[in-house]
Specification:
- The chain has about 240 residues and is of the alpha/beta class.
- It has one domain: Rossmann fold, CATH 3.40.50.10320.
- The chain has a seven-stranded mixed β-sheet, sandwiched between helices.
- The chain is globular, with a radius of gyration of 17 Å.
- Zinc ion binds next to loops.
């Protein structure tokens, strides 16, 4: 199975989806591609004097290491952090990534979230998933034979968000925390900006979702209920 996760920033996927990626990996043969639309260059609030280019380099290096630890790969689409736009080029860039990856399942950010980068990323992904199988959209790779199944991840700290599907991540939760700690700069940035580092957020939200479905830790998702992105049953692990 080919899984593509699309986030706005370098740590978006790990916070709300990496436990699920670890479960996929545990259960079988999967290819994991993590796509991030922004270059992450504003993500150094704990050290604001760091030049943007250096922040981008640092965050891409962190994201690459995390993707490799998941047995996957990392692709950065390079838009400016906090100014992600839905453009024809961005749509086609993502369409081509989905085609090259032969995506079966796509995860992305929810349509309403704390940051318009997240919301625009969600919108671009929503559209690119469908375009990836459209024969009259031309990119470097051939159209997909079928539209990938698509799931929305949790919003940041779960606001305006109620999952319909849960993945039990209890036995991989410590591994998930290790992945989050590999985002060294974002552990500090998140604490400076929001008062909680990434691991604390994952513990609180994961335990809350776990309580809802009677396990220790869970991640919550919603399938994108829009034709032709829906299939019977679930493709979650
Ligand atoms: Zn983000």
């Amino acid at each position: 199975m080919n899984i593509v996760c699309v986030g706005a920033h370098q740590d978006d996927i790990e916070v709300n989806c990496s436990g699920t990626l670890l479960k996929y990996r545990q259960k079988g043969d999967v290819n994991i591609t993590i796509v991030v639309l922004s270059n992450g260059d504003k993500g150094s609030q704990h050290n604001p004097s760091m030049p943007y280019e250096e922040v981008t380099r640092m965050r891409n290096a962190e994201a690459t290491r995390v993707a490799e630890a998941l047995g996957g790969r990392y692709i950065c689409m390079g838009q400016p952090d906090e100014y992600i736009r839905d453009t024809d080029e961005a749509r086609n860039q993502l369409v081509d990534i989905l085609r090259e990856a032969q995506a079966d399942v796509v995860f992305t950010l929810p349509p309403v979230d704390y940051n318009t980068d997240h919301m625009v990323t969600s919108q671009i992904t929503f559209h690119a998933v469908m375009l990836a199988a459209v024969q009259t959209i031309f990119t470097d790779h051939d159209p997909l034979p079928t539209t990938p199944v698509t799931y929305y991840m949790e919003s940041v700290v779960g606001l305006e968000w109620q999952p319909t599907h849960y993945v039990d991540i209890s036995d991989v939760f410590e591994q998930k925390c290790e992945l989050l700690r590999m985002h060294t700069s974002q552990m500090l940035n998140a604490e400076r900006f929001g008062g909680l580092d990434l691991v604390k957020v994952a513990q609180i939200v994961g335990a809350y979702r776990g309580m809802q479905c009677r396990v220790e830790y869970a991640e919550g998702f919603k399938p994108v209920l829009a034709w032709p992105r829906v299939r019977p049953g679930t493709m979650l692990p």
